[in-house]
């Protein structure tokens, strides 16, 4: 990924992408609560903190920099946007793509225990 695209993603507000996560999940019969559960698991944010980030239109860089990434996130593997997530060398970009993969797994009907690497 080139640096210009990377910077653009980092500066995008999480709140601008969040509805797309919800729509993707709901189209496949999943719920907002399940999307939030995934976000809580990955970032360590609770409902209140997540809502604050949405209300404040926190950008992706700050959203993930302030998160406490789940230690089991390293178990997330797969290809997203043509990149193997486990090979992404920039930690922040890797964390963003982790969330993309988890939302994809939810939309594909995977069981929550498997998505959350339990």
TrEMBL record:
<dbReference type="Pfam" id="PF09966">
    <property type="entry name" value="DUF2200"/>
</dbReference>
<dbReference type="InterPro" id="IPR014580">
    <property type="entry name" value="UCP033199"/>
</dbReference>
<protein>
    <recommendedName>
        <fullName>DUF2200 domain-containing protein</fullName>
    </recommendedName>
</protein>
<dbReference type="InterPro" id="IPR023204">
    <property type="entry name" value="SP1917_dom_sf"/>
</dbReference>
């Amino acid at each position: 990924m080139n640096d210009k695209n990377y910077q653009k993603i980092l500066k995008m507000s999480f709140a601008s992408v969040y509805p797309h996560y919800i729509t993707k999940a709901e189209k496949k019969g999943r719920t907002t609560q399940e999307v939030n559960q995934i976000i809580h698991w990955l970032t360590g944010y609770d409902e209140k903190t997540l809502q604050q980030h949405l209300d404040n239109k926190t950008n992706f860089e700050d959203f993930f920099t302030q998160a406490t990434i789940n230690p089991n996130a390293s178990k997330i593997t797969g290809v997203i946007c043509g990149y193997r997530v486990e090979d992404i060398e920039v930690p922040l970009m890797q964390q963003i793509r982790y969330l993309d993969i988890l939302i994809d797994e939810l939309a594909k009907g995977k069981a929550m225990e498997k998505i959350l690497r339990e």
